[in-house]
Amino acid sequence: MQSTLFHRMAVGLTSLMISGLATASDWAERSDHNLRPGVTAVAQEVHGLHNTVLWIVSIIGLLVFGLILISVIRHRRSKHPTPATFHENIFLEVLWTIIPFIILIAMAVPATRVLIELDDTADSELTVKVTGYRWRWGYEYLTYQDDNDVGVSFISSLATPPEQYQNPVLSGGLFPYGTAKDRVGAPSQDKDHNYMLEVDNPLVIPSGQKVRFLVTSDDVIHSFWIPDFGGKKDAIPGFVNETWALVPEGQEGTYYGQCAELCGKNHAFMPIEVKVVSQSEFQEWLAQRKEEAAAAPDLTPFENLEAAMAAGEKVYASQCALCHGQNGEGGIGLPFAGDDFAIKPEHREEHIHVVLEGRNAMPAFKGQLTPKDIAAVITYERNAWGNDSGDLIQPEDVHEEE
Amino acid sequence: MSTVAAAHDDHDHHHAPTGLKRWLFSTNHKDIGTLYLWFSFAMFLAGGFMAMIIRAELIEPGMQFVDPEFFNQMTTVHGLTMVFGAVMPGFVGLANWMIPLMIGAPDMALPRMNNWSFWILPFAFAILLSSVLLSAFGHGNPSAPNFGWTFYAPLSTKYGPASTDLFILSVHMMGISSIMGAINVIVTVFNLRAPGMTLMKMPLFVWTWLITAFLLIAVMPVLAGAVTMMLTDRHFGTSFFDAAGGGDPVLFQHVFWFFGHPEVYIMILPAFGIVSAIIPTFARKQLFGYASMVYATASIALLSFVVWAHHMFTVGMPLAGTLFFMYMTMLISVPTGVKVFNWVATMWRGSMTFELPMKWAITFVILFTCGGLSGLMLAITPVDFQYHDTYFVVAHFHYVLVSGAVFTMFAAAYYWLPKWSGVMPSKLLGELHFWNSLISVNLLFFPMHFVGLAGMPRRYADYALQFADYNFWISIGGFWFGLSQLFFLAVCLQCALKKGEKAEAKPWDGAEGLEWEVPSPAPFHTFDTPPVVK
C-alpha cells in the first residue's frame, strides 16, 4: 500500500474542496440545524419520516402549551377567583388515552416500513469490510461484482494537522495538555473548511451500485456513521454488523461521517470520508489499487539515517502520534522519548515485532503500512527526541520479520 | 400504649442531640433528609463544575483547555455525579423528609438503616471523586473513569484505566445505599400509615416514591451484577464481555440498560409526585384524575422493564427485536401523556397564583413535555439511527433530567422550605434564581437539538466547523445556568440560618395534606400519636 501516494491524493482533493470546486460535496454548508436530507433513497425516506414525526410532536406540543397558556392567562386568581371543582371526567380520560394511541399507530406504520428497508442488505455488488481501530478506520474491499477476492485494503486517518486543533490557552498547571512546551505560545492556526472531517485515505465507492458494509472493530466499540447514507451501525469487536448504501448516479461527490460511539481519548478524531465516483472511475481506481497490492513491496534500502528519519517523521505524525504523543511523550501508548525500549539494542527486534503484530491495545500494522514505512517509523522512534540509538532499520529487516 | 409513647416522647425531647453527633449518628428522618438534600446539592455543584469544564472546552473548535482524555473523564464523572450523587439522593432526601409527614408516621420504619444508607454515600463519592482529583493534580495524572457514565465494555474493561476499580467499588456502595433507602420507603409506607390513610388516599408523592422504590430494588442489583462482571473480566480471567473468550460486549449493554432504563424512571417518577402536589395547591383545585395518575405511574414503571434496548438500536439487533422495542417505547408515551393532560386539566378553570413553587412546576410541565416529545422522536427506530449518540440525545435527556427532575426538586424546595426551616425563602433571590435558570436552561439545551440533528456526535472533545455557532451559545447558556444556581445556594443558606420572614404552619392557602398540620419548622418529632385521616 502506497500510503504516501494516497496522502498526496487526499491533500490534492482537500485543496480542491477548499478552493470551492467540489461544491456537491460541501458537507459543512448543507445544514447546521436540522437533519441532513440524505443522498441515498433510504436516507431521504428517513429524513421524510423525521419531518413527519417532528411536525406531529410540534403540533402536540403547541396544543398542550397553548392550553397551559390559556389557563395561565384566564384561570389566574385575579381573573377567575372561584376555582371549579371537577376532578375527573371519564370521557376525557378515555379520549386522551385513545387518541395518542391512534397517532402512535399512524407513526409506527411508516417507521416499520423504513426499518425493514434499512435492514435489507441483500443483492449488493460491492462488499467492504469496515474495521474501527483506536482511532482510525480500516477499509477492506472483499468482493466486487464477480470478483470474490479483491484484496485491497487500507487505513484511513484524520488529515487535519495537529497545529490546527491544538490551541491550548492555559500556560501549564491545572489540566494536563501535552508537554510544557506545547502549552506555551502554540500558534492558533486558522482551521480548514473540512476541519475534523478530512482524512488521508478516503473510502472510495461507486455510484449506482449497492454497497454492503461489514462493520466490525479491532478494539473497543465504535460506530460507523455517514449521515447522508441514512444512519449508523456499531462496530463491535468480535462481531460483524451489516449495513448498506446505494448512492444514486449523478450524486458523485465526497460525503463525511464521524465515529458515533465513545471509543476513548481520540473519539472525536476519527472521521469518515467517502468519495463516491462513477462506476467506470471506480473500476479504474480499483484496478490500480489491486496492481499496487500485487506488486512486490519496495525494499530499496534507505541511503542513510537522515533519509529514514525524514520519511519516518511523516509516518509517525499520521499513524503513531495520537497514542504515543506528538513528541514521543506517551499517552495511551508507551512513551518513546528516553525510554529503554526505543534505545537499547536488545529491544530492536521486539520493536519491529510489536509494530508488525500489535500487542494489547496496540494494533498490528502488518499489511497496513509498507515495510518501508514501518522501517522508517521505527528508525524515527529510535533516534528522535534525543533517543539517538543510531539504529537504522532497513525495509529488508522488516520484510524478514514478516 | 399511649402512656409509654408519651414517656418515651418526653425522654427524647429532653435529649435532643446536638453538634456533630446529631448528624453523624442521626436516626431522625428530618435530619437524615436534610443531610441527603445538602449532599445532593453539593454533588449538583460539583457535577455542574465539571459541566463548566466541558462547556469551556467546547466553546469553540480546537482543543483549548483540557486534553481529550481529561475531557472524557469530565463527561463521565459529570454524568455519574449528577445521576447517582445529585438526582437520586435529592429525591431520597425529599422522601425522608416528606413521606413520614405525609402519611402521619413518626419516622421512617428503619431509622438506623436510614442513617447507614445516607452515610455510605459520602464515602462512595469520596472514592469516585478522588480519582478525578488524582487525575487533575496527581503525579503523572492517572486517568479517572473515562468511558462515559454508561461505561460500555470493552472500553471500561480491557481498556479501562486503573481507577475503574475505584469506580466499581463506589457504584457498589451507591447501589447498597439506594436499595436500603428503597426498602425503608416500602416498609414505611406499608406499615406506618396513620389510621384512615388508605393506599388510595396517599398523596401522589408517596405513591410515586413507593413505585420508584420497587423499581430500585428490582434494578440496582442488576447494576451491581454488571459492575461485578466487569470486575471479574478485568481481574479474574472471565470473558463475559470479551468476544475473544466467548463473551459479548453487547451483553454488557443489555445488562446495563436493563438497569438503566428503569433508572430513568427512578429519576422522574418522584418528580411527577411533587408536581402533582404543587399544581393543585396553587390552582386551588383538586388534582385531576388521581386514580389515573396512580395507574399511569404503575404502567410507566412496568413498561420501563421492556424498553431497555431502545438505547442500543444501533448494535445490530434482529429486526423482530428492534420492532418490539420500538413499539413498546412508543407505548410509554400514552401513560406519560395522561399525566401531562391531567396536570393541564388540574390547572384548567382553577384559580391560579404563581408563587415560586408553582412557577417551577409549570415550567416543569412545559419543558418535561419538550423532553417527552423528543423522546417519542427517538423511539422511531429508523430515525433514531440518525439521532443516536448525537447531541439530539443529549438535549433530550437534559430536558427531562434538568428541566424535569432537577426543576421539580427546586419546586419542592421552595414549596417545603417553610416547613423544613420555619422561614419563607427569599422572594427576591428565588425570583432571580427562577428567571435566570429558566432562560439559561433553554439557551443551554435547546440549541443542542439543532447541533445534534445537524450531526454532531455526543462526547466529542472537538468538532467540525458548522457546529461552532450553536456551541458558542450553548456554552454561554451553560455558564449562565451554572452561575444562576448560586442564587439557590443563597436561598438555602438564608433558610438554614433562619433569616427572613417566619413561616406559618400552612404558608400556602391552597395546600392540603398532613405535613401542613404540624408547625413550621416541623418539630424534631412529629406524629408521635398518629393523626386520624378521614
TrEMBL record, chain A:
Pfam families: COX2 (PF00116), COX2_TM (PF02790), Cytochrome_CBB3 (PF13442). Residues 1-24 form the signal peptide. Its EC number is 7.1.1.9. Residues 27-122 form the Cytochrome oxidase subunit II transmembrane region profile domain. PANTHER family: CYTOCHROME C OXIDASE SUBUNIT 2, CYTOCHROME C OXIDASE, SUBUNIT II. Residues 307-385 form the Cytochrome c domain. It is found in: Cell membrane; Membrane. It catalyses: 4 Fe(II)-[cytochrome c] + O2 + 8 H(+)(in) = 4 Fe(III)-[cytochrome c] + 2 H2O + 4 H(+)(out). Its cofactor is Cu cation. Binds a copper A center. The lineage of its organism: Bacteria, Pseudomonadati, Pseudomonadota, Gammaproteobacteria, Oceanospirillales. Residues 123-288 form the Cytochrome oxidase subunit II copper A binding domain. The chain crosses the membrane at residues 52-73, 94-116. The keyword Membrane applies. It is an enzyme of class 7 (translocase). It comes from the Bacteria. Subunits I and II form the functional core of the enzyme complex. Electrons originating in cytochrome c are transferred via heme a and Cu(A) to the binuclear center formed by heme a3 and Cu(B). It is a multi-pass membrane protein. It comes from Alcanivorax xiamenensis. This is Cytochrome c oxidase subunit 2. Keywords: Copper, Electron transport, Heme, Iron, Membrane, Metal-binding, Respiratory chain, Signal, Translocase, Transmembrane, Transmembrane helix, Transport. Belongs to the cytochrome c oxidase subunit 2 family.
